[in-house]
Amino acid sequence: MRTLxxxxxxxxxxxxxxxxxxxxxxxxxxxxxxSPAPAPGPAEPIKLKLAHSVPPMSxxxxxxxxxxxxxxxxxxxxIGKPVQFTLFPGGALAKIPEQYDNCCNDQSHVLAETLxx
Length: 117
Known about the structure:
Blueprint: H1 2-21, E1 46-52, H2 59-78, E2 83-88, H3 99-104, E3 110-112
């Protein structure tokens, strides 16, 4: 009976040594990180039509409206969302009474008018 116990203990010790000395299970290697998406190219400009009834040679057109549109174009281009204006001075798209309806019907996008007192 003693021999049987020694044999059982010996088998258990050999089993523990074999299990303890075996190589650890390999952990799966993490997948490589996805590469970042390429930076988008320059955006297409938003094209807006600006209509007003002021003559193209007037100070209102040359000193206020034109510089304002240039400033908006520069600032929006600097942030990557360009806006481009096409000017229609002197009532080129519609006369004064129809300009509001013209803007509401998407024939122009921006309406600039001056008060005439």
